[in-house]
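Researcher: We are triaging several targets before committing to wet-lab work. For this one, the compound of interest is zinc ion. I'm pasting the protein sequence and the ligand SMILES. What I need is the predicted three-dimensional arrangement of the protein with the ligand bound, expressed as C-alpha cells, so it can go straight into our comparison scripts without reformatting.
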Amino acid sequence: MSTEQTEAIVLRVVEFSETSLIVTLYTRHFGRLSALAKGARRPKGPFEGALDLLACSRIVVICKSSDALDLLTEAKLQRRFRAGQTSLIRLHCGYYVAELLRMWTENGVASEELFDLMTRTIETIDGDGDALTAVLDFELRAMRLLGNAPATDACVGCGGAIESAGARVPFAYQLGGVLCPACRGGQREVASVRRGVIDQIAVRQRSQKPLSGPLAASDYRDLRAVVGRYVCTTLGMAPRTQSLLPANWVAH
Ligand SMILES: [Zn+2]
C-alpha cells in the first residue's frame, strides 16, 4: 500500500453507494486506474467537481497492492470540461475520446505522451478549435503510441512497397493496413480507399502538433469512416459512443 500524487483525467464515473463513486481515471504517472471515492456523492463533498467526466484534477490516491480498489483521498480540480454548455457535438466528442482511452488502456501501464495527447485533445474539444478533426488526430496518434497504428507505407501482407500509381489503395481492416495488388486476393474486409485518405492517415498519425488548415469535407467523411471502422476492428467491438459522431463534417 502506498500513497501517490499525480494528475488525472476522469474517464468514467459509476455510482457505488448512497455516498460513494467508483471513478476510472487516466493518470500521468500510473496510467489507467480505478478508485473508490468515498463521500463523493454527498452535497458539498470533498471532491467538488474534480470527479466530473473529463475534468483534469490533481489527485492523491492510496494504491492497494492486492486486487482491491485503490482509494481516492483527495482530488483538486485543475480544469473543468464545459463543452456540454456550448455544443452537443463537442460533448459527444468528449464522451468518445473518454471511452476510447478507457478501452485502449490497462490499469497501471503509464504513458506520459498519451496523457499529454489526451490533455491537448480535451483542450481543443472544449475550446473553439475543430473538435471533429481533433478526435481523428487523437485516434490516429493514440493508436500509434499504443502500437496499433494502421500501416500506410508497406504492404501488410508481404512488406513490399506500395506502388505510388493509382488513385485507390486496398486497405485491409483485419490485417491492419494497406495491401499490394499481389496480396489482395482472398483477403476479407478489404476496402478500396482513396490515396489522399491513406496519405492523411500517414501524416496525422506521426504529427506531433495539430496540422494547420481545415480538412476538405470529402477527406473528413472518408477519414471518419475508415478510422472509425479500423478502431472497431482493433477493439473487436464498436465503442458505444462512436455512433454519436457525425459522418460528415458539420460546424460546431
Ligand atoms: Zn504484398
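Researcher: Any quick observations?
Model: The helical segments are 88-104, 112-126, 131-145, 181-184, 195-206, 217-235.
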